[in-house]
């Protein structure tokens, strides 16, 4: 995928600010990419653009040879539903649905979904199928969110601070499950993080500052997750 001269503005007149300004980068398929940068730099904005939750004001976003920046709302909905999985810091589960029902929310509208029970078992939650989010730990809730996101095998897994609310060990487990999606079904994974240590496990590190790409590095030897410490 490639971003070419992407800009996104918020506000009008003298309040107009660029959340993304002439943003350019490329990501190869099946890579684990980490986006780092200070608060307010424009990381979530670019993730939302990649996920078709919003459209840029300028530039092109090329995914699988298609420029999604030109998509109409209906095409964007289809793209989000079929090609993208989202993971958020605060899990975003539906409180009054069980773990299994939360995953079924995604699989019921998908074309080739995995089995919700099997996918929950694969993230170690086979014994938690009927529990509600409030009955689960933070790490367990995030693993339900991962199960929900990967149950439709999206090409693109977009994660906004997925370990931000988790302790060290649980954070590592969540990262390892996100990484497994690359091997398991050829996903491309992009993770926003404030934790630069996570960059050691990435194939690619994109550093965003002041709404633009400050630096991009390809990591020739990503470390196994078990070896990363922070
Ligand atoms: N919906 C919006 N309306 C107005 N301004 C916005 C909106 N979304 C983002 N911004 C502004 O755009 C800039 C970039 O925000 P963004 O959320 O992308 O940063 P971020 O790097 O993800 O920050 P953080 O690490 O704190 O989440 C900020 O100045 C923010 O205030």
From TrEMBL:
The biological process GO terms on file are: amino acid transport
Sorted alphabetically, the keyword list is: Amino-acid transport, ATP-binding, Nucleotide-binding, Transport
**Looking at the UniProt record for this protein, which Gene Ontology cellular component terms does it annotate, in alphabetical order?**
membrane protein complex
Q: Which InterPro entries match?
A: AAA+_ATPase, ABC_transporter-like_ATP-bd, ABC_transporter-like_CS, MacB-like_ATP-bd, P-loop_NTPase
**CDD domains per record:** ABC_MJ0796_LolCDE_FtsE
- Entry annotated with the keyword Transport: yes
Q: A GO molecular function for this record?
A: ATP binding
The lineage's top-level taxon is Bacteria
Q: Which residues form the ABC transporter domain?
A: 1-230
PROSITE patterns recorded = ABC_TRANSPORTER_1, ABC_TRANSPORTER_2
- Please give the SMART domains that the UniProt record associates with this protein: AAA (SM00382)
What the record says about family reads:
Belongs to the ABC transporter superfamily.
Which PANTHER family does the protein's record reference? ABC TRANSPORTER ATP-BINDING PROTEIN MG467-RELATED (PTHR42798:SF2), LIPOPROTEIN-RELEASING SYSTEM ATP-BINDING PROTEIN LOLD (PTHR42798)
Protein's recorded name: ABC transporter ATP-binding protein
Q: Native species of this protein?
A: Atopococcus tabaci
